[in-house]
Amino acid sequence: MPRQPLHDHKTEQQHKKQGNMVKVMKEALAVCSDKSLSAGVTVWDIDSGDHLLHIPTCASPLHGLLCLANHSIVASQVQRLGSFAGGAIFIWPLNKGYGVGAPANSHGISETKPQSVLRNYCLEAIGPISSTRDGLYLAGGAPSGNAFIWEVSSGRMVKKWSAHQRSISCLAFSMDGSLLVSGSNEGEICVWDLISLLEVAADCGSVPSSFLSRLEHGSSITGLICTSGSSSSMLVSSSLDGTCKVWDLFSGELLSVRAFPQPVNAIIIDHKEQFLFSGCTDGRIFVSAVDSGVLDVNASVASEDQLMVLSKHKGSITALSFSLSGQFLISASEDCTACLWDVKTWSVTRRFNHKKGQITNIVTVPQSSLIAGGETSSRASHQPRVSLLDKYPQPVNNFKGTVAVLPSSLADNDIKTDFRSASMTSRQILDLETGKKKKQKVSSSSVPASPPPEK
């Protein structure tokens, strides 16, 4: 029999608390396909399964949909075969335009399309995207191997560089926003120090050195997850080579390897970071413990009696996620369905049918963020402003704003120690710029207005 995760009394009490929290904070599930722009984004009520909203004009590739700090939905758009046009990223602010201008449904959400849609047209096609948890920075990867970083509030492209020789298949920021991890379809993984990227942002053509680079997977990278462990941060990667690997995020040491009987197409870790869920191309989801264990370089394929196996899909798993409460695992498949798994019984409590094509992406959002004037929108003044994204890198001289170049005297170790989050990064840059302006002011006041007369 498959081994199942154990739930002690304490865990059961936490589930009860989570159940109560779900009643207070209702959640919505947003899904999309990559087949047609007309398919758009479909939004369902997780609890009832009711259709809440349809956002038109969206066809997003794998890893191309995210919720930006619970206030905007962001989606990269697929590029049609043979097209020579650039790419596109669409942004829908959730609190603007929903619930306004038409009768609301029973959930208080209007079926009208958003009044504010930011259509950002990029220099080249963008596949996977990722954002920092605070929503300050957005990263995108291209089939050319180029990577891009935008500052969301200003829309400024702060960095463009050649991250990989082949197409970028995955992107993920670390939990604190200090590192960006990229994976390619040739199995290469690079970890980039965000401060180093911003430090040389003035020269957008330069190639920064990666903080860590490993070529350890035998095929395309399909998933990247950064954990937030108190003792040490780990990186979990998955690949079409049928393995999942656990790394020390900072040292790059390979901690453990999990081998599966099928290529792994998607991964997710539960909120407690105890279990790894690996979705395979045959529709099965394998559950294994997230622990470093003992490294076995010759790891054999785990047998099904050693793992818990979830099997309800008839097509390849395309995406995995957890509800915001952690009460449900959500899986999506090429069979055009999404399943809601109860974490206590591991039974499917609801199945969502997506009639507009196979699902490529899933994301959960608070229902309050979909209602104009809701709880989330009442905090709009504290949310980052969203601007149109630059299509081209902007020279520093043309940028009307604060630009700070970190002093080269700072050692790499100092940088890695001092900057551990995107918000801290912004504060440090602002402090540096403020100090620079004060220094310039003092310097200019000490220079005579005109040269002294000649004697």
Automatic annotation (TrEMBL):
Gene3D superfamilies: YVTN repeat-like/Quinoprotein amine dehydrogenase. WD repeats lie at residues 161-194, 231-257, 310-351. GO terms for biological process: DNA-templated DNA replication; rRNA processing. SMART domains: WD40. One of its GO terms (cellular component) is rixosome complex. The keyword Repeat applies. It comes from the Eukaryota. SUPFAM superfamilies: WD40 repeat-like. Pfam families: WD40 (PF00400). Residues 430-455 are annotated as: Disordered. Keywords: Repeat, WD repeat. InterPro entries: WD40/YVTN_repeat-like_dom_sf, WD40_PAC1, WD40_repeat_CS, WD40_repeat_dom_sf, WD40_rpt, WDR18/Ipi3/RID3. This is Uncharacterized protein. It comes from Stephania cephalantha.
